[in-house]
Amino acid sequence: MRPVEIKEGVHWIGVVDWNCRNFHGYARSANGTTYNAFYIEDEKKVLVDTVSKEFESQFICSLSHLTKPEEIDYLVVNHLEPDHAGCLAKMVELCKPEKIFVSVMGGKALKTFFDCEDWPVHVVKPGEEVSIGKRTLRFYETRMLHWPDNMFTFVPEEKLLFTSDAFGQNIAASERWVDEVSKEMVEDHMQQYYANIITPYSPKVIKTLETFAGLNLDIDMICPDHGLMYRGDDCAFALEKYMDYAKQTPKNKATLFYDSMWHSTERMINAVASGLVSEGISVKVMSVKANHHSDIMSEVFDSAAIVIGSPTHNNGILPGMADALTYVKGLRPQDKIGACVGSFGWSGECVKILNEWLEKMGCEIIEPGLKAKNRPNHDMLKECFQLGVAIAAAIKEKTGK
Q: Among 17, 41, 49, 146, which one carries the catalytic annotation?
């Protein structure tokens, strides 16, 4: 797409990846994604971030509508992940920049990604300012949002904040701004992105947002490196949503995810779900065969409880369930109630193993779990229903609703 002027002399020069469905190799991106980069025209010409390597020619073409690459003076690298620094080496070759600005951790990581001994790297300190003419670039370290090297770049004269991964969404669209599309759609994608990318670093998000609130920056535009950008009142919307996500405030909701061979565990999960629903709790019931692990995580994220299920298989649990549990545990969702069910044919280790997973995730396990031999009978399904009722009571106590 052609460049889009977002402030006088400041242009979006990203690319829209309409076909991305596997974001970073582990998360589903059903709506594609966008790699945002920016060009600032001033006494010094500045390029802020680049895009994924596969879009290099498109990126250079877009930039060429505004300036010749060799006229670029400064490169700002807010984040070194390859979807944002994929064209960095090529841009250094073409631009021969006077300086390349990176964070402290970015300076260390740069050497592990590139053969950059002769690059004019300038490692910035938090709060350091660089004049580019009429405007100033001010850099803030935002370590672990979501890599150690992440930083924000603020342009105070334009009230413009470039935030690299933070506030992003996986959206491919012809629109560039949140206020041009459905706010509900944006919020849904913001939460999916946060749940699958940022969740483990929530304490850092809270600390960073509190620090920024204390700085009293005058911000009227937030430009993340993925998806749509925020302007006007939507900047406050983005900041409020991120604080809400970081606190991981649970809803009166339970996510039940499971695997099953001959539907016995599935019947048990459905009976637990019925018990939850009978008490007014919203549920999501998700087979790991029918749902991608990142979609499961998106539902787990704002749930007060998780219920997991698997039959015993080779003295363990089914591999699809182990995959989903490994993914969810790695994202460290906080403050969940946990319970489990499973069926078995002869050895019956499933409930013990599932409870171990719940313990590793720091869940509050309210019942020891239910186990059915071969096929759950009527009495067992009644027990599963009552387990759902008990989980519902625990959810209401937790949320106070």
A: 146
To the query of whether residue 93 is one of the catalytic residues in this protein, the response is no
Angle among Cα 110, 112, 118 to the nearest 5 degrees reads 55
Annotated active-site residue 263? The verdict is no
**What is the per-residue pLDDT across 148-202, written as a single tens digit (0 to 9) for each?**
999 999 999 999 999 999 999 999 999 999 999 999 999 999 999 999 999 999 9
Q: Would you give the distance in Å from CA 240 to the centre of its chain? A: 16
| 13-49: burial string, b at 16+ Cβ within 10 Å, e else | bbbbbeebeebeeebbbebbbbbbbbbbbbebbbbbb
Whole-model pTM: value is: 0.95
* Annotated active-site residue in 42, 81, 225, 259: 81
Tokens of residue 292, six digits: 């991608």
Of 84, 189, 226, 292, which is the active-site residue?
226
**Does residue 189 carry a catalytic annotation?**
no
Over the stretch 123-151, which tens digit does the pLDDT of each residue have? 999 999 999 999 999 999 999 998 999 99
SS3 139: strand
- Tell me if residue 379 is catalytic: no
pLDDT in tens, 281-291: 999 999 999 99
* Cβ-based neighbours of 234, under 8 Å, separated by 6 or more: 177, 178, 179, 222
Active site residue 193: yes
